[in-house]
Amino acid sequence: MTKLTDTHISLAHGNGGRLMRELIEGLIADSLGDRLLDIENDAARIDLDQRDAELLITTDGFTVKPLEFPGGDIGSLAVHGTVNDLAVSGATPHYLSLNLFIEEGLEVSLLQRLLCSLAKAAGEAGVKIACGDTKVVPRGEGSGVYFATTGVGLRPKSLQLGFSHIQPDDRILVSGPIGDHGIAVMLAREQFGLRGDVRSDAASVLAFTRTASEFSGLRYMRDPTRGGLATVLHELHRATGLGVRVYEPQLPIRDQVKTVCEMLGYDPHYLACEGRVVAIIAADQADSLLQRWQQLPNGGRAALIGQLNRHDTGVVLETELGGERVLEELEDDPLPRIC
Amino acid sequence: MQQRREFIIKGRVQGVGMRPFIYQLATGLQLGGWVRNLNGSVQLQLEGDQQAIHRFVQLLKNAPPLTAHPVFVDEQLLEPTHETGFRIRSSRTTTEADIHVPPDYFLCPDCLRELNAPGDRRYAYPFINCASCGPRYTLIRQLPYDRPNTGMADFPLCPACHSEYTDPMQRRFHAEPVACPECGPQLSFENLNQSQQGSQALQTTLELLQLGELVLIKGIGGYHLCCDATNSEAVEHLRQRKQRPHKPLALMFPSVGDDELDAVRAELHVEATEAAVLRSPARPIVLLRKRPDSRLPGLLAPGMQELGVMLPYSPLHYLLLARLERPIVATSANLPGEPVLTDAGEVNRRLADVTPNRLHHNRPIVRPADDPLVRLIQQRIRPLRLGRGTAPLELELPQPLPRPLLACGGHMKNSVALAWEQRIVISPHVGDLDSPRSRETYARTIADLQQLYAVQATSLVCDHHRGYFGSQWAAAQPLPTCPVWHHHAHAAVLAGEYPQESRWLVFTWDGVGLGEDSTLWGGEALLGRPGDWQRVGSWQPFRLPGAERAAREPWRTALGVCWQSDTRWPGAPAGVDLLYGAWQKGLNSPLTSAVGRLFDAAAALLGLCQRASFEGQAPMWLEQLAWQGEHPGIELPLVAEGPVWRSDWMPLLAMLLDESLSTADRAHAFHASLARALLAQASELKQQHGDFAIGLSGGVFQNRLLCELIMQQSQKFGLRIYLPQQVPVNDAGLCYGQIIEARARLQSQ
Ligand SMILES: [Fe+3]
Ligand SMILES: [Mg+2]
Ligand SMILES: [Zn+2]
Ligand SMILES: [Zn+2]
């Protein structure tokens, strides 16, 4: 088998010649191993039995700085992001496509680690890489590597999810502590020189979404990625017109995340998660779903965090002392208002 | 000589007992004619002896009803019709709106006499009132001000009240809230084990207060949370229950002695102007200095030499305090920053954990009004918060407006303003706009003002800060919006209040506000006039580590300025490496030039306050400490950076950490240095730019010591310095400045 002998990526690795073949065969195919369907053909054939199911497709691009952070890296993120988008739609993901945009000068050993991590994540989520493409961009025109993945999956036709199913009085569940990913990446990026013990929550949420899908009262699921939980709650409010009320003391947030947020003045409600699900479910089934979630690996801190109602006119946070605060929509750069 | 004259009288002439007053005056002088309400004004025709008419006008101008502000706008000579009797004609409504909404008044001396007269049919009746006293703004559902349009609609008058109500010779002629024990509202008390009505309810309340219990008491503009102010255990209990460890609690004193102030004087210093305002119909909370021998618990206002004090203003308060014979804590019943609660159901639901004891009554509070707050600063009483008795505040604008405007105000300490033609009306204090309830009250107050005054705004004015709720609210309305910079609005307040000055240098010192360059301003000197401000003075910028959190945690700003100046702060909190990293990278550490934050830093460096449990705590405590010190302050470097002169705060740090000085002296030196820096900027700028009037605007100038030091030191420079007098100097006054600023900009377009 061809081996990639260079230690750093050069522009020539994207020119279609020998070096590129070495990169694809010797590094990419090798790293992805049995997750890779085929590199011989221009187009791949995929097997999907869709008698009682609908075919779902989603796509996502991945840029993250640093490329590796505690609890994950851009490789695993490229799988989890797309897998989770399918999962919260109620689908089982089957295939991914994979595009790589590599910046000239990237260390080959780093690329290899990222690809192995990607393969491992794909294996755990049960998805195969069906096709892909590689480009090399000149130095300074990328930040190491960008990934893009497209995923296809199947959703049972019987599963009806969406904003339109949501009723006032439905409950809001979250599958685990929020903000871990946002804080882990921020600490790693800013290189504060601290041995941060916060790890990203990046993971597949399939176990959670499959469990939730067994409940007839499940209305809607969403992964709180960019913009965090607050953004999901605002989407809920906007799409349904219902009030959203969250009980602050119930929100699962790790102590370490709280400490960092308090110190730096961040609000954990807006921090990204990469391995959490928010589910909206009928009030009478909320407790049993919660119990089931709590029994799953990584589900110990799942929580019922709030409910929808007709009387609130936005997203309201009920604080410990019985106070109420409006949870604002995320601003690009929130500035202090206290005068 | 006989003649007939017609007068149109505007100003505050409705809901103040004007027509019966005029009736009695005219009848007494044997004048014929008639009077009627004409939307917001009074139309009056008098016929009779010329001298008598002249005398009538003099009397009405010089000694009008207690709460009236008559303004004679028109007078003409008519053909005599030989009309002899005087009558009150029914109101006429026209399409032109000139409505004046009266605020809520105190209990007038006449009613007070009746309240205390055992034979009177309203003896000890807690809802006694007359045409010149009692609730108005908080009672009126809509205008015209007639009983069916008030919260009294559900109380049909008994025959006795009815005859007083319809007799122009009586004090209660058309007194819309008129009531008596037969037909009017009643008290009711409830807690977990009892519920009582009427005088029994009052009695139980009294006994519980005497026992040191907390009681929620429904007043004029909302509920108070009350306890015996002389009982430190009760006060401590109240603080625990309200989760309010430090914020000063307002007190209500019993009215004792000829001028009602004997009980107050036993504990506090009262200057003549303070005495006058304490007794004024608005009955505001006045900040007064404690006497050295005061026995009041320190817990009422930790860290403070001053206490907020008011006199009873409703008959209920008179009854309660007269029997209690000691001051009570009367703090508004609400959650921090939220508007005061007005509804029994809400009080029961939201304050269930505070205390089970509630004294309700069944006269509805149509809209909330917190107690107003004033302070004597630089020899004048200045409002710090508008509310019951002072709002809606109606003022005349220096110039007319082309179209009605609504000003959205600021985000904290919000008030809003409606302005049209040459008038502006400012709402009572709404509160901080973070909670859903504040936001509801905000929207309701805006709708309400427009409905009450029958004026619809066609444009909105808001702050440039997009995170302010007012800006978001404005963006959601189908009306054009004119954003105004925060400090331009602060500056414009002075230009509005003192139109005789045409060129200003306004020092706009406050917490923070969004500036034109997207940094947080708060220590600026703005030169020019409304619609045309140029920043010419400021402070060296510094970072706020943790952004908004810095406003609640003064230690953050203190660290920020120490890091920036390489100052070692021995008292610095530990475990802040992460924050230091963020500060170095500018991460969530925005730049500011806000003097309010320098006060925070100073309070932290002196060890006074590291974390504030209420807004403004650190600067307030610093000022109070500084009163006990003495130090002329230090000279701060002033550097020109383009057109902007910047004062450098750095030398302050070494002085604040200088342990050879007492903390009080250091606190005083901080104030004195800031005053000197302000005057150094002013005199430098005067040389450069020529003559101007100097204004002080923004929350920092609620600080009496700072203002007085500035005034004292300014004498040698020969500068004219102004402070706002009618409008709060803090963010509650922003709405007024927004209107002045917007008008100037509409003009120049
Ligand atoms: Fe301000
Ligand atoms: Mg996506
Ligand atoms: Zn009266
Ligand atoms: Zn009656």
TrEMBL record, chain A:
Residue span, PurM-like N-terminal domain: 41-154
Species in which this protein is naturally found: Thiohalophilus thiocyanatoxydans
Pfam families with a match to the protein in the record: AIRS, AIRS_C
InterPro entries listed in its UniProt record: HypE, PurM-like_C_dom, PurM-like_C_sf, PurM-like_N, PurM-like_N_sf
TM helices/strands, residue ranges: none
Protein name, entry field: Hydrogenase expression/formation protein HypE
Taxonomic path: Bacteria, Pseudomonadati, Pseudomonadota, Gammaproteobacteria, Thiohalomonadales
Protein family per UniProt: Belongs to the HypE family.
An annotated GO BP: protein maturation
Domain PurM-like C-terminal: residue ranges: 167-311
From TrEMBL, chain B:
Entry annotation: catalytic residues: 19, 37
Pathway given in the UniProt record: Protein modification; [NiFe] hydrogenase maturation
InterPro entries in alphabetical order: Acylphosphatase-like_dom, Acylphosphatase-like_dom_sf, Acylphosphatase_CS, Carbamoyltrans_HypF-like, Carbamoyltransferase_HypF, DHBP_synth_RibB-like_a/b_dom, HypF_C, HypF_C_2
UniProt domain Acylphosphatase-like: residue ranges: 4-90
Keyword Metal-binding belongs to the record: yes
Pfam families (UniProt xref): Acylphosphatase (PF00708), HypF_C (PF17788), HypF_C_2 (PF22521), Sua5_yciO_yrdC (PF01300), zf-HYPF (PF07503)
Function noted in UniProt: Involved in the maturation of [NiFe] hydrogenases. Along with HypE, it catalyzes the synthesis of the CN ligands of the active site iron of [NiFe]-hydrogenases. HypF functions as a carbamoyl transferase using carbamoylphosphate as a substrate and transferring the carboxamido moiety in an ATP-dependent reaction to the thiolate of the C-terminal cysteine of HypE yielding a protein-S-carboxamide.
Name recorded for this polypeptide: Carbamoyltransferase HypF
Organism lineage: Bacteria, Pseudomonadati, Pseudomonadota, Gammaproteobacteria, Thiohalomonadales
